[in-house]
Each structure stands twice: as C-alpha cells, then as structure tokens.
Amino acid sequence: MTRSTRQRERTRETDETEEQEGVRACPECESDNLVKDSDRGELICQDCGLVVEEEKIDPGPEWRAFNHQERQQKSRVGAPTTQTMHDKGLTTTIDWKDKDAYGRSISSKKRSQMHRLRKWQERIRTKDAGERNLQFALSEIDRMASALGVPRSVREVASVIYRRALKEDLIRGRSIEGVATSALYAACRKEGIPRSLEEISEVSRVERKEIGRTYRYISQELGLEMRPVDPKKYVPRFCSELELSEEVQTKANEIIEKTAEEGLLSGKSPTGYAAAAIYAASLLCNEKKTQREVADVAQVTEVTIRNRYQEQIEAMGIHG
C-alpha cells in the first residue's frame, strides 16, 4: 500500500469517526458553541450563525405535551427500571380493580378468572427462595425508608448494597431484616443524610446492637469506605425539631467547626456532639432549651450532653 493510499484510508476513517461522534466544532469559525434547534432540526453555531447541520433526526416522541399531565397521558412507555424491586420493575402487574379498559365492571365469570390470574402472577414473580428473600428484604427497606422519611435515592443505594451482599453470600447465618437495616443505614451515610442507629432501630424489627454488628461486617466485606459522620449534618434537623432559629443553627455549626479543629471530635458520637453544640448555641443566643429537650430530640442521654458541652465551652474559651 502506497503512502497516498494509506493517507486516504486514514482520512476516510477520521471522517467516519467524526460522523459517528457528531460535529463538535463549527467548520467556519472553529467555535464549539453549537446550539441545537429542535423545531427546525438544525445545529447552529451561536458565534457566527452558520447552520452546521440540518434535517437532523429527532429521537424523541412524535407527540407534543405542554404539561406533566399531558405527558403522562400520551406516554406509551412504562416506568424506568428500579433496584428497589426484586425484578427491577420489569414484570407485569395485574390491577386489583375488577374493571375493563373503559372503566366498566366485568362479569362474575371474568372476575373469578382475573382473581386466579392475579394469584398465579404473584406466585410466579419469584421463581426461587433467593428471589423471595430479595423481595422480602427490599420491601423491608422500602417500609423503613418511608418511616424515616428519606428520599428515593437512599432507597436505591440501599437496594444496591443489599443485592451486593446477597451476591457475595453475606446473608448466610444472619437475619434478612438485620442485613436490610444495615444496608439502609449504610445508604443514609453514603448519601449524606445520616440517621443515628437509635433512629434506625426504632423503625426496624432488629436490635441496635445487631444492626451495628451487621453494618460493620457488611461495610468491611463490601469495602464501602465510609467516612465518619459530620455532626453538622444533624444540626438542621435537630434545630428544626426544637424550633430554634437560623442564628442558633449557625452558631452551633461554628462551635462544631472550632472545637473539631482542637481535636475534640475524635472518638465521640456525632449525634451527642451535635446536640451539645446546639444546647450551647441556644444558651448563647438566648433561646434556652433544657438538656432534657435536646437529649430527647437527639436520642442521647443528658450526661452525654453535659460532658460534651463542658468540653466545647472550655475549648471555645467561654465560661458559663
């Protein structure tokens, strides 16, 4: 193959690659500031106005919708796949309403047939014990997440962690509820929405000690690399429950930052540390709350608050 032939081959390959990747720069002014006009199907350079591409194929739906309700009515596709269901939401669900497509009631014969179909559909959704295990665990995660009021992203992460634990055979010898609760606790920490072990154990059917033990085991085996919880993450929620002002919240965060720099946070419970900072801030801002009130919200003892409070005001150089 001659040099000119090789050069032509390379040029052709480059052109094909550019076509596959799409135009990234304007051929006129070499600007990468390109804008897509969906109505006209054109790709336009915003700097010089050149129409770089025209008659582009629109991969979107052929219908138009102007609000969420219209979009829901016209859409002909199902919900996206989710990790929070054992089958990822891909199997058929037969509705419990005994009505046809027009909303009319169906006959008694059809009703008994649909009841039988519904029953068998529920049975065949889980083909073995492993899937039944997963179905129960994910429903537990969903129940606890709802009780804690955490967002959907946390449920998705918890479901992924549980699936990994099941795949690595970490469930053997442990309760399904214990591993599911530990996965949810880990997901809360991963997503930066921490919940204390006390709060988690309140909505779980498992004791706090078992949750902590299972969490440490799963975290180590799956290599989750959890960072220590920042006490400042608890401050907004605790202040909201205590009906304290923004000023107290800011002051509490300031106390946590300054005392953590002194090394006081090492080895301390983040919830107790945040509670003590809020108690100190409420005194400094003349919005006094009793130690009992703060302890109830943070689910720690008054002794913990007193000890952390003394350490914090000494480190801050405040003498109360």
UniProtKB/TrEMBL annotation:
* Binding positions (Zn(2+)): 26, 29, 45, 48
Matching entries from InterPro entries are given as: Cyclin-like_dom (IPR013763), Cyclin-like_sf (IPR036915), TFIIB (IPR000812), TFIIB_arc (IPR023484), TFIIB_CS (IPR023486), TFIIB_cyclin (IPR013150), Znf_TFIIB (IPR013137)
Span of domain TFIIB-type: 21-53
Q: Which UniProt keywords apply?
A: Initiation factor, Metal-binding, Protein biosynthesis, Repeat, Transcription, Transcription regulation, Zinc, Zinc-finger
Q: Where is the composition biased (Basic and acidic residues)?
A: 1-14
Q: Name one GO molecular function term.
A: zinc ion binding
Q: Which Gene3D superfamilies match?
A: 1.10.472.170, Cyclin-like
Single GO cellular component annotation?
transcription preinitiation complex
Which biological processes are named by the entry's GO terms? transcription preinitiation complex assembly
Question: What is this protein's record name?
Answer: Transcription initiation factor IIB
